[in-house]
Amino acid sequence: MGGFYMAYLESLCRRRGWRDPLYETYRSSSGYTCLVLVNGREYQTDLAYESDGLAQENAAMRAFMVCRNFSVNGGMLARNGVVQGLPANEHSGRHRRRHGGRSHSVNLSSSSSTASSE
């Protein structure tokens, strides 16, 4: 089941007439990371988490914190050298290019289907 920030982010997207958030969860030996696509922009975790749900919640929190002030910051925020909210294309297949030949698993889901799949 999704966390509070995933619900807040989904609600924000609906109020603004945007598509539901799309989550890409990656598993590695250090844990799970997540990238969420919101209104054509990417937001991602800064750390690896022990579950895919925690990684998705952290990515949703980062996206929500930036997008709630979208008219002020244009959907982008730079903090600690990481730029959140870079423009992206949800059909770009980014996860295939980013990891090259390394072994990884990817879980693509929208926020509305995430709650029902767990």
TrEMBL record:
Question: Could you identify this protein by its name?
Answer: DRBM domain-containing protein
Stretches with biased composition (Basic residues): 93-102
Judging by the UniProt lineage, the source's domain of life is: Eukaryota
Where is this chain compositionally biased, Low complexity type? 103-118
Which parts of the sequence are annotated with region: Disordered? 86-118
Q: Which organism is it from?
A: Hyaloscypha variabilis (strain UAMH 11265 / GT02V1 / F)
